[in-house]
Amino acid sequence: MQLLVSVTSATEAVAALAGEADFVDAKDPLAGALGAVSEQVLREIREAVAGRRPVTAALGDATTEGALEQMSRRFVAAGARFVKVGFAGINSGPRVAALIEAAVCGAKSADSEAGVIAVAYADGELSASVPPAALIQLSMRAGAAGILLDTANKGGPGLRGLMSEGVLANWVSEVHRADLLAALAGRLTVEDIAFVLDAGADIVGVRGAACDGGRTGRVVMEKVSLLRATIERSTPAVQRVGPRVDRPERSRA
User: Fold this and answer.
1) 2-239: what fold?
2) At what angle do helices 165-177 and 132-142 cross, to 10 degrees?
C-alpha cells in the first residue's frame, strides 16, 4: 500500500519526501476537505518534489463542467499527475458522470498520462453527494483513474467510525473489479493503518496524522516516517513486490 501525504507548501513537500511518502498531495486544509492550493503554490511544490514522487492536487468540489475542465487542465499543467474532485451537493448520477468526463478531458489535454480521482464521501448524507457505491460505475464509465473515499466533515467521525471493516473491504473490492485505484482517507491515524490494509486499499491518504498540531498544523518528517514504517511493518512480505512509487497503476501481484 502506498502513502499519500497532503501538503500546503514546498517546505511541507520536502518533509513528506524525507519521510518517504509515495505521493505528495497539494491541498489547503483551511479551504475544506478538498481545498485547492493556488497554481503558484502547486508549481512550488512540484519544483520541490523535482520528479522524485508523483504530485497530486485537490480541485475542490465540482461546480460546472466548463470550470472543472479548465481547472483540471491548469493544475495538471502546473505539475499534478492526478487531480482529485468531489461532488458535494450533487446527487445526480448523470451530472456526476458529466463532471468527471470534463475533468478527464481537461487533465488529458494538458498531459495524456494524467488522471482524475473521483472523491466519494463516507458521510455523504451531510454533503448530499452520490453514495460511494454509486460512484464506482460512474467513475469507470467516465474515464477516471480511481476513487478516493474520504470524509466531508473533518470535525466529525473519521472513516473508521463511519464504515465497518466488512463494508469497506467490499467497497474496495468493487472498485478493483471496475479496474480503478482505491484510495482511503478521512481522519485516519497511524493506528488505522492495519484497518486500511485489511480493506485492500491501494493508497492511504493522510494530513493530520502527518502533522504537528493536527490537519491545520505542519507536516513533519518524523510523523511521515512513522506512517511509512507502520505500513511496512503491517504489510505481509508477499505483498511487498515491485517499486512503490512512480507507478500510477495498481500492483496486480
Assistant:
1) TIM Barrel (3.20.20)
2) 10
The helix, strand and coil proportions of the chain, stated in percent and rounded to the nearest 5, come to 45, 20, 35
- Which pLDDT tens digit goes with each residue over 181-205? 999 999 999 999 999 999 999 999 9
The answer to whether 97 touches 141, Cβ cutoff 8 Å, is: yes
Q: Which residue in this structure is represented by grid cell 468540489?
A: 61
Sorting pLDDT into bands at 50, 70 and 90, what band is 218? very high
* pTM of the predicted protein model: 0.91
Closest by alpha carbon to 26, among 195, 102, 11, 162? Answer: 11
Among positive and negative, which fits the CA dihedral 84, 85, 86, 92? negative
Which of 27, 108, 154, 223 is an active site residue?
A: 27
Pairing of strands 181-184, 2-7: unpaired
108 catalytic? Reply is no
How many other C-beta atoms lie within 10 A of the C-beta of residue 9?
A: 17
Domain ranges of the chain: 2-239
Buried b (16+ CB within 10 A) or exposed e, 116-140: bbbbbbbbbeebebbebeebbebbb
* Distance (Å, whole) CA 148 – CA 153: 15
